[in-house]
Design a protein that fits this description.
The structure is a single chain. The protein has 2 domains: about 45 residues, no CATH class; about 190 residues, 3-Layer(aba) Sandwich (Rossmann fold). About 40% of the residues lie in helices and about 15% in strands. It has a 5-stranded parallel beta sheet with strand order 1-7-6-2-3, with helices on both faces. Strands 4-5 form a two-stranded antiparallel ribbon. Helix 5 crosses helix 7. Bound molecules: zinc ion (2 copies). One zinc ion binds next to helix 2.
């Protein structure tokens, strides 16, 4: 063990002693041995992972191998596929709420472990966060998609590029019906050509759009559409949860 990691472990144990870590789901104290920092093994078992039998297009769970789900039979997306780590319910939903509304950056290492648990394989790709309007980003102080990208990039060794910007403010998608969601985000995004040129993102690179939740796919589609129109040939989506 290196000197640096001994110090880091000692520091963590000291912090655990001062501020004992508790489970986000049930509030029980977490021992030194727990693999996750803020999720106990019992609560972890409640998470419905999506690692097999999912729709190859939209990532919906419980679809027979190889088949697309009923929804995807009726529509097409500009991205090749969406991969979600787990079903948006219970503790999985709580993780996202904590990250988004309570500045839960401390959950990022656990989100990294969740990606591993869901057998995420990113391959050689550029991670692109779904942007927030500057006003909402300013109010919240951060963009959760950027945080997720940053952490996954460290684990999987990918590049992160803020390739898109939001050119108009939109209502929150939460609480809107399917049709209103598609209308709400249409034409809300554009490719930031300055960033693309500066970071030398070639159009043949595989792009993976990253967001927290996939509901109807309206936001992902609005983002993917502008990337495809700009000449990017391979666009995929990655989300923490599938609603
Ligand atoms: Zn728990
Ligand atoms: Zn589907």
């Amino acid at each position: 063990m290196s000197g640096k990691s001994i110090f880091r472990d000692a520091g963590r144990h000291f912090l655990d002693f001062l501020f004992p870590r508790t489970c986000l789901g049930c509030g029980s104290a977490l021992g030194k041995k727990s693999t996750y920092c803020y999720i106990c093994p019992d609560c972890l078992r409640e998470i419905e992972w999506i690692h097999n039998h999912f729709c190859p297009r939209c990532g919906a769970p419980d679809v027979e191998n190889g088949d697309v789900c009923d929804e995807c039979e009726k529509k097409t997306f500009s991205f090749r596929r969406n991969r979600s780590l787990y079903v948006y319910s219970g503790l999985g939903r709580q993780v996202i709420h904590e990250l988004k509304y309570r500045n839960g950056r401390h959950l990022l290492p656990d989100i990294g472990r969740m990606a591993n648990e869901a057998r995420l394989d990113l391959g050689n790709t550029v991670l692109v966060p779904v942007p927030l309007h500057w006003w909402r980003r300013w109010l919240r102080g951060f963009n959760q998609s950027e945080l997720i990208c940053g952490h996954l990039a460290k684990i999987y060794g990918c590049k992160v590029c803020p390739l898109l910007c939001r050119n108009r403010h939109t209502r929150r998608q939460f609480g809107l019906g399917a049709r209103a969601r598609w209308r709400n985000v249409g034409n809300a995004f554009q490719v930031n050509e300055r960033v693309r040129a500066k970071m030398k993102i070639a159009k043949n690179f595989k792009i993976t759009l990253v967001d927290d939740i996939f509901t109807t796919g309206a936001t992902m589609e609005a983002c993917a559409k502008v990337l495809v129109a700009a000449g990017f040939g391979h666009v995929e989506a990655l989300t923490l949860a599938r609603a």
